[in-house]
Amino acid sequence: MLTNFGRLSVLAIVLSMSACAVMQPKTTEENVLKLAEKRQTALLAQDFKKAYKYMSPGYRELNTVENLMSDYAGVYSWKSSDVLNATCDDGVCRVNVKVFVDIGLMQSAATPDQERVLVPRVNRETWIKLDNKWWFSKSE
User: Residue 131: which CATH number?
Assistant: First the structure.
């Protein structure tokens, strides 16, 4: 039977081990996936000012938020997205993002009562690391 001191010792050890597990640094892939998810959320909400913040410094040097809006003019037809996975190596991450596009909205004869036709498309994004920060670079 454990004494109060013994119980406290066991509790302290368990809590220490839990804290170590929680404090483990996330992998590069986990960090970039989180950024990709935040960017996708901004794009789906058509919050281009927020999405612009994830763009690389080089893109932002040459382009405005309005340019980004132009680049993503078709985002209105995106209904949802799912950030699938990331593979990172030497400061470059490739992230696969499945986007569900409502092709009914893309047809000029679409009517409000038309049935939705969601088509999945996988975009392969490139994220780059500059000055110890990750930035969206391009999508294929």
Answer: 3.10.450.50
